[in-house]
Amino acid sequence: MKVENLWKWFDEKPVLKGISFEVRRGEVKVIMGPSGAGKSTLLKCIDMLVEPDEGKIWLEGVELTNLGKEINQYRRKMGFVFQEFNLFSHLTALDNVMIGLRKVRKLPKDQALEIAEKALRTVHIERDLWHKYPAQLSGGQRQRVAIARALAMEPVIMLYDEPTSALDPQLTGEVLEVIKELAENGMTSIIVTHELGFALEIADELMIMMDGKIIERGSPREVVYSPESDSTKVFFEKVLQFGGTSR
Amino acid sequence: MLAARAIGMSKWQSAFHIILPQALRKAIPQLSNEYSIILKDSAICFILGVMEIMTRTRYATIATGIAFIPYLIAGGLYIVLTYAGAKAFDLVYSRVRMRGLVAG
Hints:
The complex is a heterodimer. Chain A is built from nine helices and ten strands. By secondary structure, chain A is α/β, with parallel strands linked by helices. In chain A, 47% of the residues are buried. Chain B is an all-alpha fold. In chain B, 84% of the residues lie in helices and 0% in strands. The longest helix of chain B is centred in the first third of the chain and has 31 residues. The radius of gyration of chain B is 21 Å and the shape is elongated. Chain B starts with a helix and ends in an 8-residue tail after the last helix. The chains are: A alpha/beta, B mainly alpha. At the A-B interface, helix 2, strand 6, helix 3 and helix 5 of A face helix 1 and helix 2 of B.
């Protein structure tokens, strides 16, 4: 994936100011930064859920910003996991995962079922939970179902927008574990997170965003322990002071 | 809506498969309230229902010379109609409600 000079304004206020980066297949990029830096907006622009005002995005050589209505087909190739899970509350866990397979990929029921079951098992959601509704599941379970829903579409890249920020600390681990397994099995991933320990563990590259710009990037250890910019230093001082998450 | 589009649904698909089913399920209890009001107030229901019931009640009053009992019966009829209608909505709602979303 290639992102080139992305700009986005909301009501004349610039939220993204010329963001550029590349992601190679199998790479894991982690983006961190203070609230309001534009990280969520960046991910949503990449998935074309929000249209960027300037700049271009390519996925596997296809320019997404130039697609128009066909973007729906390409969105299937990008799995998006939201901070607030955004499961479909009127459907069971299994149906949540299957609906994309049936309505978007237009697969027959038995094939959709097979793929959905496999996706749910990948995120360690077992059969006894498949017919429960989201409101009957814990936060960690809901988020894992959301990951399964994205995985079922067989994306080439996964985009995680603060996947554990809405979870209690004890449920965070199970979701991070799933993300880590997927990454270790080669899933190209861009993760916006506040979990510093997690970033240090799995990121190939860590990017720090502040005020709409990427102010620092490099290997996680370099960025955290020997940052070049003063703003990054201050950011991590605060993070490390409170024991490892930048929440 | 965002989640539906994120898995590749078009806006139309998102509205039809995701937004509408949820919206309808949430609206049913309110529709049940509306039914009771419409029964009394809407023109058709009024003509077929209220006027008819009230006309018959008046005839009964004139015919029998007793005022109280026919009106009592009319009142009873209203209660039955409203109750039956509300119960029917409850039944539909219990079938389609999103389990766990509200207590019970």
